[in-house]
Amino acid sequence: MKKILTIFALIITQPTLVFANQPKNWQLGFQDAASQTMRDIVWFHDYMLMPIIVAISAFVLFLMLYAMVRFRASRNPNPSKRTHNVLVEIIWTLVPCLILIVMAVPSFKVLYSQDTIPKADVTIKAIGYQWYWGYEYPDENIIFDSYMIEEKDLQAGQPRLLAVDNFVVVPVNKVVKVLITANDVLHAWALPAFGVKRDAMPGRVNETWFKAEREGTFYGQCSELCGIKHAFMPIEVRVVSDEEYQLWLDEAKIKFAKDEIFENNKLIASNKQ
After folding, report:
1. What is the pLDDT of residue 260?
2. Rounded to two decimals, what is the model's pTM?
């Protein structure tokens, strides 16, 4: 009875969770950050990089305007013969060094957090193909392919060029390790809301991780030019509660059973021969 009530509650709340924080038409930015890593990246961009960039740009513009006015030909008929200024050269060497050091400290912190993978609660393998993604849950014996849904087949609420037929499902507030590789050419598995981007390379397995802190549907795309349909390799990840994740696992173990799929593929191959 408890399981039936849980399923009913999930059915009622699913539309709200699935389509929360969806991309909007003409949206310029990414989906809101859903992990600590992405929040660190956004903070570094908004409160470290942008003020420094604006300050340097404004200072250079001021120097250009000042030089154009102060040292124009009509005001300086006899040009200066000065060749150098030791103090100025020391300043324009030390100041950029200090700026780089200030930028490096939080940058290294973010890079370290991205590359230091905690103990994983869930492990997923993402395989890039031309032009779709394949996924495996090695610990659960689950394997499936994920293709973009054509525009004519989209359902209400599904975003164009981002929705897929089989999406990745992960539990909220759990460490998810992603093993990333490719079957043919270079691809890249990128999910901006989680601060994740890793190249998918044939013959090599890269690792990354994320910990989604809220439920919802999050989108990414292949971020490495991989051929004519590069723009049609979306990534869709649904973050759900522990209860819903367990229900999905129970269904996926039947629908996407790895051994059964391999047997079917062997049967198809033998029939072709």
Report:
1. 58
2. 0.78
